[in-house]
UniProtKB/TrEMBL annotation:
GO terms for molecular function: tryptophan synthase activity. The keyword Amino-acid biosynthesis applies. Its EC number is 4.2.1.20. InterPro entries: Aldolase_TIM, RibuloseP-bd_barrel, Trp_synthase_suA. Keywords: Amino-acid biosynthesis, Aromatic amino acid biosynthesis, Lyase, Tryptophan biosynthesis. This is tryptophan synthase. It catalyses: (1S,2R)-1-C-(indol-3-yl)glycerol 3-phosphate + L-serine = D-glyceraldehyde 3-phosphate + L-tryptophan + H2O.
């Protein structure tokens, strides 16, 4: 369902870069989003890691590691 939506947006051939900002929590979801967009916004996952770590630098490090795995 999401991919059909992304495909419709892609077919519009908009001039502005597109980013996906929902459901991004790991490498697989990031790569899926980037098939149809210029990038992804990883908001909720970052907030949950920040709540766990209480240290922004550690949370960012874990987020990046999770997206690379």
């Amino acid at each position: 369902q999401k991919q059909a939506y992304f495909k419709r947006i892609e077919d519009m051939q908009l001039k502005n870069p597109r980013v996906v900002g929902f459901g991004i929590s790991n490498r697989a979801t990031f790569e899926a989003a980037c098939r149809y967009a210029s990038g992804a916004i990883v908001g909720s996952k970052f907030i949950s890691l920040l709540e766990e770590e209480r240290d922004a630098e550690k949370a960012v490090k874990r987020l990046i590691e999770g997206l690379r795995e």
